[in-house]
Write a structure and sequence with these properties.
Elements (H helix, E strand, L loop, with lengths): L2 H7 L8 E10 L9 E9 L3 E5 L6 H8 L7 E6 L2 E2 L5 H6 L1 E5 L10 H5 L1 H5 L4 H14 L4 H4 L9 H12 L6 E5 L7 H18 L2 E6 L2 H7 L2 E5 L5 E5 L1 H6 L4 H7 L3 H4 L17 E3 L4 H9 L5 E5 L5 E6 H4 L11 E2 L3 E2 L5 H9 L5 E5 L5 E6 H29 L1
Parallel strand pairs: 3-8, 3-9, 6-7, 7-8, 11-12, 15-16
Antiparallel strand pairs: 1-2, 1-4, 4-5, 9-10, 12-13, 13-14, 16-17
Helix pairs in contact: 6-8
Length: 405
């Protein structure tokens, strides 16, 4: 079975429309006898994120750059939406494809608005339409247009520049996006938040994305399907994250996944899919100490979570805080940290739980309003389920092997 065939059948669902197909794609650089990419064949379905992952030097970035012909293939075909674009005008091809790289590639002498507007201007959009699109995209990536459109890249943080890079890639509304280590040069906390924001955004825009990373944890979190690549971009396994973790094709894939497969599976489970604790006592920062004390006494918790006027988590206060003179809910207790959204993974929740002031991760909706909490017991229960599933798979595979013998 080819990688293309496997991609269609691995999910067990009705095959979706193929957005792009790579057919025997090969690249041999001048002066080299050995191809950097050797007969790469796979298909990517419309609306999915496919991640190329593998060790440094395996050819994953070269493979992605062949797709929009930043590097011209030596042989093979690129078929985009049913059209063979292997020899078409490369500039026109690139205007159909969004491209995000690790260092964003923003032009330092142009404003944020001008950077985002580059491709729409090239394809002939009118000024009013471009201005509306710039504002729409800045809002979409969480940046107030009034505050950011006239700034320059040097005035932004690394995470903000990366957001602008994503906005620029989406400017002309391409159906296909290429993302090369887009969050790789950012600190771990910002990286995690940008990953979550992008997944939230992808749920709305449903772009087809080829995403390159060397990090298997990022691949598991971001990908609908993952292509684990060997040297020369030979496909070791092209499958769903779940199958790669639980049914690795060979020792190479197992070694690349590394230890802790059960913990890695926490990147497959979303907070929205588990039963959140909703019994945590909550109150308003304007409530009296007496009212909050009654709520605390009626619960099994050691602190009350105070919400602001928009029901956003604000402070944790305990019984000692409530007994203080001149109690003020806006100042007393500890800041409510470790806030995640429902689309975040259980791995994110576990990371946040470590820094929390309340012994749990607080879940809020897209507007920041309180939804519930995820505690360590919730995460441990999910791990036990995953471990039991893995054990059942192992025993079934062992039994099947013995029958074959």
């Amino acid at each position: 079975m080819t990688a293309t065939d496997s991609a269609t059948s691995s999910t067990g669902a009705t095959p979706r429309e193929v957005m792009i197909e790579l057919d025997e794609l090969t690249k041999t650089f001048p002066g080299q006898s050995r191809p950097a990419v050797d007969r790469l064949s796979l298909s990517v379905h419309r609306g999915e994120i496919v991640v190329f992952v593998g060790p440094s030097g395996c050819g994953k970035t070269t493979s992605m750059e062949l797709v929009n012909r930043l590097i011209e293939p030596t042989s093979g075909r690129i078929i985009l939406e049913g059209e063979d674009v292997t020899t078409s005008n490369p500039d026109e091809l690139r205007r159909r494809i969004g491209y995000v790289i690790q260092e964003t590639g923003l032009l330092p002498h142009r404003t944020i608005a001008d950077n985002i507007a580059m491709v729409p201007k090239l394809v002939g959009w009118k000024k009013a339409r471009i201005n509306d699109r710039v504002d729409e995209l800045l809002g979409m990536v969480g940046m107030d247009p009034a505050g950011y459109r006239d700034r320059y890249p040097k005035e932004l943080s690394g995470g903000q520049r990366q957001r602008v890079g994503v906005a620029r890639a989406m400017a002309a509304d391409p159906q296909l996006m290429l993302m090369d280590e887009p969050f790789g040069a950012i600190d771990p906390i910002t990286r995690e938040r940008l990953q979550n924001e992008f997944l939230r955004l992808q749920a709305q825009i449903q772009k087809t994305i080829i995403f390159v990373t060397h990090d298997i944890d990022e691949a598991i979190k971001m990908g609908d399907r993952i292509a684990v690549l060997r040297d020369q971009s030979h496909i070791a396994q092209y499958d769903t994250p779940e199958n790669i973790l639980t049914k690795p094709a060979d020792d190479y894939v197992s070694d690349f996944i590394g230890s802790g497969a059960s913990l890695k599976r926490l990147n497959l489970s979303r907070i929205r899919d588990v039963e959140m604790a909703t019994d945590a006592p909550t109150g308003s920062i304007t409530d009296s100490a007496e009212d909050l004390g009654r709520k605390l006494a009626a619960s099994d918790w050691s602190a009350v979570l105070l919400l602001d006027e928009q029901r956003r988590p604000a402070r944790w206060v305990n019984a000692q805080d409530l007994r203080r003179d001149n109690f003020d809910g806006a100042r007393m207790g500890l800041e409510a940290r470790a806030v995640v959204e429902p689309h975040a993974t259980l791995a994110d929740a576990l990371n946040e739980l470590v820094i929390s002031n309340g012994g749990c991760a607080i879940v809020s909706d897209a507007n920041g309003a309180y939804v519930g909490v995820v505690d360590l017991e919730t995460i441990m229960a999910a791990i036990r389920v995953m471990r039991d599933e893995h054990t059942r798979f192992y025993l079934a595979a062992k039994s099947h092997s013995q029958v074959d013998l």
